[in-house]
Amino acid sequence: MVSRRAFVAGVATSVGLTLTGCTQTDPPTYGNVLRMADLLTYKAHRLLLPAHSLAREYDSGDISSVAAIGTTNPADPNKSWFNKEHGPTYDRLLANRFADWRLIVEGSVARPRTFSLAELQRMPARTQITRHTCEEGWSAIAQWTGVPLRNVLQAVGTLQTARFVQFHAYDNYADGIDMLDALHPQTILAYGMNGRDLPISHGAPLRARVETQLGYKSLKFLRRIVVTDHFEELGNIRNGWSWYAGI
Amino acid sequence: MCGRVFHPAWVRICHWLVVASYLTLAVSGFLILMVHPRLYLGEVGNDLTPALLTLPISNNHRPNELQRTVVFLEFPGRPFSADRNYPTFNKNGWARSLHFLGGWVFVVVGIVYVATGIATRHIERDLLPLKFISSSARPAYKFRQKLAYTGVVFIVLPVMIAAGLTMSPAMTSAFPVLLDVFGGYQSARTVHFLGFVALLLFFVVHVAMVIATGFREQLRGMTWRK
Questions:
Q1: Distance between CA atoms of residues B44 and B54, nearest Å
Q2: Do A9 and A85 fall into the same domain?
Q3: Does residue A34 lie in a domain region?
Q4: Is A245 inside a domain boundary?
Q5: CATH number of the domain that A143 lies in?
Q6: Rounded CA gap, A131 and B189, in Å?
Q7: For the residues B139-151, what does the mean pLDDT come to?
Q8: A18 with A113, same domain?
Q9: How confident is the model at residue B187, as a pLDDT?
Q10: Chain B contact set for A63 (CB, 8 A)
């Protein structure tokens, strides 16, 4: 447990940083009053909660129906998050069953590189049956299989200065998490769902699973991962959504 | 709330901060509920599973408008997936942040109130429905009134906070016992809603009683009367 003094100092720091707005390294960067509360929640969680406690895992009998919302196919130009550059690329990759798909991993890493789906599938896998908790209020339980993000980060050699991991998708979604959640054992890059290949509507060929935060942090249709030293506003964060969704 | 009431300054300040954060929490919470106006028991609940209660407060649930389905498991009647083929109401981007802003104010004021209330024996003398402790005759509350205040402060609000925390994936990872206490994420969400209803009832009755016992007099007693 942290001391009361440390907690008070942490709270004071978060509030102070937000008020002065000098936060190139601290999320979120824009200092309105709602963001202050979000930042306070983030700081309080990081200060008071144990670092890598596991989200509950369930039995295969608990697997439930699950709605597919947001983008359900990045190649569909009628979807509101369609990206003119990457949407058609996704269509081509899909036609070849993702044989030519590559995940780019770059940024504050010693050995930036790309990964094919087969390469990711050859890495140590983790299978977990967890609850997807949507910010809308619904929930669903599914089984996810993938490679822990920490293994991918190890393979590229994350630099000492790295603090955040960004996810970029084949639609216009982009978001990120801090290094603590990135190294969480249950934070995986999933290519399997309920024992099958990940369906298109749930993010084929690869999606993030961030089990310690709300569903919108588990980005689908991954294209690129960027490790950064500083916080950057991406995607829906710019529309006012809380960056930290551990809630 | 009978006769000339007197409340110490710290009670008055806490009262109005609680009013502000309560109204913020109630309105933003209702907006959040409108995005998925269905309640369930257990861990799981979504548009594809049956609800305990569907509230007619938004047009977001339309079970007959699913685009297509993907059956995940081989045996019939088992879990499936479907896309949503209609636009939904969703103001959660700011509504949830506002809910947490209200929540932080509420929790901080609540801690100050209970701590000061214990230190000054305000809770013991004026609030708890204990017949053997004679009231200090300042706000000489009736028994049922004490029961209502005590119930809200020491039962409804702590349950609300715990149920709210159970909706946090980070919290339930750190304290999985929360899921056992409430019987799952969706059960906690339903309890949180029932707490909202209870607090709304308390709010309505409280304001009605203030009006019935002399609105101006009561309001002055909770504001600037010396």
A1: 15
A2: no
A3: yes
A4: no
A5: 3.90.420.10
A6: 14
A7: 85
A8: no
A9: 98
A10: 72-73, 79
Note the pLDDT tens digit of each residue in A195-236: 999 999 999 999 999 999 999 999 999 999 999 999 988 877
Residue of B nearest to A200 (CA): B70
CA distance A161 to chain B (A): 25
- Percent of chain B predicted with pLDDT > 70: 93
pTM of the model: 0.91
Q: Say whether B97 and A236 touch across the interface (CB within 8 A).
A: no
Would you place residue B1 in the very low, low, confident or very high pLDDT band (cuts 50, 70, 90)?
very low
Distance, in Å, from the CA atom of B173 to the CA atom of B224, rounded to the nearest integer, reads 46
Domain check: are A96 and A165 in the same one?
Answer: yes
C-alpha torsion angle, residues B138, B143, B147, B149 (rounded to 10):
-20
DSSP structure class, residue B50:
-
Does residue A91 share a domain with residue A208?
A: yes
CA distance A141 to chain B (A): 7
Residue A223 lies in a domain: yes
Higher pLDDT: B207 or B129? It is B207
Say whether residue A246 is in contact with chain B using an 8 A CB cutoff.
yes
Return the bridge partners of A130, or none: A142
Tell me, what's the pLDDT at A1?
40
Q: Would you say domain B9-26+92-221 falls under CATH 1.20.950?
A: yes
The shortest CB-CB distance from A68 to any of B32, B81, B167 is to B81
So what's the pLDDT on residue A8?
43
ipTM: 0.92
Give the closest of B33, B44, B173 to A141, CB-based: B44
CB contact under 8 A, A131 and B44: yes
**Residue to substitute from B168, B178, B187, interface A, most A β-carbons within 10 A:** B168
Which H helix or E strand runs over B38? Answer: strand B38-39
- Per residue in B114-142, pLDDT (tens digit) is 999 999 999 988 888 876 555 554 556 78
State the DSSP H helix or E strand holding residue B107, giving kind and residue range, or none if neither: helix B92-119
**Contact residues, chain B, for A139 at CB < 8 Å:** 43-46, 185-186
Assign A169 a pLDDT band (cuts: 50, 70, 90). very high
User: How do the residues of chain A divide into helix, strand and coil, expressed in percent and rounded to 5?
Assistant: 30, 25, 45
Confidence of residue B69 (pLDDT cuts 50, 70, 90): confident
Residue ranges of A 114-173 with Cβ closer than 8 A to chain B: 131, 133-142
Does A244 map to a domain?
Answer: no
Last residue of a domain, one of A49, A70, A85: A49
- Please check whether residues A197 and A133 belong to one and the same domain: yes
Q: State whether A58 and A23 are in the same domain.
A: no
In chain B, where the domains are located: 9-26+92-221
**Alpha helical stretches, state H, chain B:** 9-35, 92-119, 122, 143-151, 157-166, 169-174, 177-182, 185-212, 215-221
Considering the domain architecture, whether residues A125 and A30 belong to the same structural domain is answered as no
Domain of A192 in residue numbering reads as 54-239
- Domain tally, chain A: 2
- The total of other beta-carbon atoms located within 10 Å of residue A3's CB is 8
Looking at the structure, do residues A16 and A99 belong to the same domain, yes or no?
no
Measure CB to CB from residue A67 to each of B72, B82, B172 and give the nearest one.
B82
Instruction: Give the nearest partner residue to A67 out of B46, B93, B98, using CB atoms.
Output: B46
Q: What is the pLDDT of residue B65?
A: 80
> Is A53 in CB contact (< 8 Å) with chain B?
yes
